[in-house]
Amino acid sequence: MAMPSAFSWPMFAPSAPSVLRTGLPWQLCCMKKIADTNFIQDEKLLRAFLSRSPAYRVVLTDYMAMELYNSGGVDALYRATKVLSEFPGQALVLKEIATVCGLSGRLAGLQRRLIDERQSAELPLFYHVVEAAHNGDRQYTRELERLSADAAKQLEVVLEGVRGSPEAYEGIATQFSNSDLKAFRSGVAFSKDMAVKIVNFCMELSADVMEQHPMVHKFPRRDEFTNTYIFRASLCNCVLALWWISVGGAGGARPERLRNDVVDSYLAAYSTYFDGVLSSDRKLNDIYGASRFILAAAFGR
């Protein structure tokens, strides 16, 4: 499984002149959920979630932001961030995925290590930049256009990386028995034995990734291994592979669809650290739900 390595991409320009802190400290939040791009773009759904409580948070990831930047220019970005700007302090930004891949799996502070506190604090400034660009400020427009171009390049990298996914998914299928695959196709809940088998396979897979990843400087302890993002992403990618196998394979799927699936598996992996995912996408919700179930069945948590 390919994982992003040294790529670092801030949601907005790192040259922000000040840090603005608003709202409740994120540590005090009672509900933090990963949001996908469609949810952020749906004003009604997003406003309904944020208005339920000032302690509710949407959690933003770099790949979600890349899709947002790639969805139609400054005006589209303005529409997507308008609701967020009405609820200052109710959004959190995660560190870029390459950094997250190298984070410790130590249980203490597990969620906090994922949060980019600087970018989260500066979101109100980002909303101001987007609004100014929307109103015609050429300096900010160029800044956002640069970030949009960078996002498009990274999504192209992911597109190239998924071209071998159909064969990789078939390879994953060979790790499981016909009865395992039949149970998955029929929608039967994972047994504990199946969950343990998936976890063991993903541990081997993610160990190989860790050995090659430039951001992993220390191999995790056994009790911390399954808390690492590389393991969680491997797990979600395995569930995605089993989903494709259950519908006959991914051989006929367009590369763009496979890329969207991979991005969704990254979002699902992030969601296992928080209170779930905000998305209307059934496959994304299924990947997240199955992954949480497997973790619970295998480890009783």
Short description:
By secondary structure, this protein is mainly α.
What is the strand and helix layout of this fold?
Elements: E1 31-35, H1 37-41, H2 43-51, E2 56-60, H3 62-69, H4 73-85, E3 91-93, H5 97-101, H6 110-114, H7 117-121, H8 123-134, H9 138-161, H10 165-173, H11 178-185, H12 192-212, H13 222-225, H14 229-246, H15 255-271, E4 277-278, H16 282-299
Parallel strand pairs: 1-2, 1-4, 2-3
Helix pairs in contact: 2-4, 3-9, 4-8, 8-9, 9-15, 10-14, 11-14, 12-14, 12-16, 14-15, 14-16, 15-16
End-to-end separation in angstroms reads 25 Å
Shape: globular
Number of domains: 2
Number of strands: 4
How are helices and strands ordered from N to C? EHHEHHEHHHHHHHHHHHEH
Largest sheet: 4 strands, parallel
Extract low-pLDDT stretches.
3-9, 13-23
**Which class of secondary structure composition applies to the elements?**
mainly alpha
Structure description:
The structure is a single chain. The chain is globular, with a radius of gyration of 19 Å. Mean pLDDT is 88; it is low at 3-9 and 13-23. Helix 4 (73-85) crosses helix 8 (123-134) and helix 12 crosses helix 14. It has helices at residues 37-41, 43-51, 62-69, 73-85, 97-101, 110-114, 117-121, 123-134, 138-161, 165-173, 178-185, 192-212, 222-225, 229-246, 255-271, 282-299, and strands spanning 31-35, 56-60, 91-93, 277-278. By secondary structure, it is mainly alpha-helical. It folds into two domains: 26-160, no CATH class; 162-299, no CATH class. The longest helix is centred in the middle third of the chain and has 24 residues, at 138-161.
